[in-house]
Design goal:
Layout lengths: L5 E3 L1 H12 L6 H16 L10 H10 L9 E5 L3 E5 L5 H19 L1 E10 L5 H9 L3 E9 L19 E5 L7 E5 L6 H10 L8 E2 L5 E2 L12 E2 L5 H19 L14 E9 L1 H4 L2 H16 L15 H13 L1 E3 L1 H13 L4 H7 L4
Parallel strand pairs: 3-4
Antiparallel strand pairs: 1-12, 2-3, 4-11, 5-6, 5-11, 6-7, 8-9, 8-10
Helix pairs in contact: 1-2, 1-12, 3-11, 11-12
Length: 360
């Protein structure tokens, strides 16, 4: 049987996803935060961190691993240093609140270190660098993942930790920010879920199967028996993944990935964020002039055969966003079916979701 794929206008998708998120019992502000954050990930081309996460969120909520209407708690206030607890709340809310606190302190002190633990899935980490950049701040973020281990250490034959993202953002007054947002695995776990739902292989040298052998079949990160993702750049991505676990996990969250459990659906994150006000560190105009001169120099490189113009980190996401705002958000049929099933689990009519999305 062929499963129909969909191209859903953004306004209709917002209406449908808001309806589903209400099924968690979320307050209106939380409904907006979760729906906006997930759809923004889709708009920027990161379908792995978009609305396709909702089925897992629903299972996590029903298991007790995700707490709606939770807010960030301050455990330690050291002025320019904050230790926060996310109370297993929606990361889309907890992340925004944590960054708002850090931004206020960085504006006051010139910098702030934010140690956040016990948040449910923080989603696309680039969103938090973008929030800082909108406030004129440079930021760096080290993130660990406490869930089923899905990434193998360099030279290892099974999974021992998560995709452990790293992100950094640099703002400019008259140019969009440079936002580097990457998983330390070759590809994000969510991209294997998307590939599996579409019935497509992943690129070579991304995965190993349950015997530690190279494979392109994404099912080994989606259904048992599980294999593992590989780190990007061999030992280099592995080293950065370790740092994300040590800093985002052990230091910020006080918790690291040390379990091989495969049953629970919750995804908990720790994040160590460093926020800096460049205007309080040096002459901002001079900094931006030098940075922009460098970016212009790099992007003036003639494109190699098979490539288009040289881009800076964040440029591809902005191009995706413009295209999808105009044309709609593509959602494969399997993912949409999982979203409808999740709605029913939450007591929300799948037919109502279909109608809201304009798919009837």
């Amino acid at each position: 049987m062929t499963i129909a794929n969909h191209l859903i206008p953004v306004a209709r998708l917002h209406t449908a996803i808001r309806l589903l998120v209400r099924g968690f019992g979320s307050a209106p502000a939380e409904v907006e935060a979760v729906a906006n954050n997930l759809i923004e990930a889709n708009l920027r081309g990161h379908d792995s961190h978009g609305i396709g996460m909702l089925p897992r969120y629903a299972d996590a909520y029903l298991e007790g691993g995700l707490k709606p209407n939770a807010h960030v708690k301050t455990l330690l206030d050291g002025g320019a240093m904050l230790r926060l607890d996310g109370d297993t709340g929606f990361g889309q809310v907890i992340g925004q609140e944590a960054m708002a606190l850090g931004i206020a302190r960085a504006r006051q002190h010139g910098s702030c270190i934010v140690a956040l633990g016990n948040a449910h899935h923080l989603g696309r980490i680039g969103a938090w660098a973008e929030q800082a950049a909108e406030a004129g701040l440079v930021s760096m973020h080290f993130v660990n993942v406490i869930s089923r281990a899905i990434v193998a250490p360099y030279g290892g034959a099974d999974a021992r930790f998560g995709t452990n993202p790293f992100c950094a953002g640099v703002p400019f007054a008259n140019r969009p920010p440079v936002i580097l947002d990457l998983a330390t695995s070759v590809i994000a776990q969510g991209k294997t879920r998307v590939a599996h739902n579409k019935g497509e292989p992943v690129a070579p040298d991304c995965l190993i199967d349950d015997q530690g052998r190279a494979t392109t079949d994404p099912r080994y990160t989606v259904i048992p028996p599980f294999g593992a993702l590989l780190t990007f750049g061999g030992h280099k991505g592995y080293g950065l993944a370790l740092m994300c676990e040590l800093l985002g996990g052990a230091l910020a969250a006080g918790a690291t990935q040390r379990s091989d459990e495969t049953g629970k659906k919750r995804v908990h994150n720790g994040m160590l964020s460093v926020l800096l006000d460049p205007a309080m560190l040096s002459d901002r105009a001079a900094f931006e002039a030098e940075a922009l001169a460098f970016l212009d120099w790099v992007q003036a490189s003639p494109p190699r055969q098979g490539f288009e113009a040289v881009q800076a980190a964040g440029d591809p996401e902005r191009a995706y966003r413009a295209s999808r705002l105009a044309d709609g958000v593509p959602v494969d049929g399997t993912t949409w079916g999982e979203i409808l099933a999740a709605a029913e689990k939450l007591g929300v009519s799948a037919a109502a979701i279909q109608a809201a999305a304009g798919l009837v």
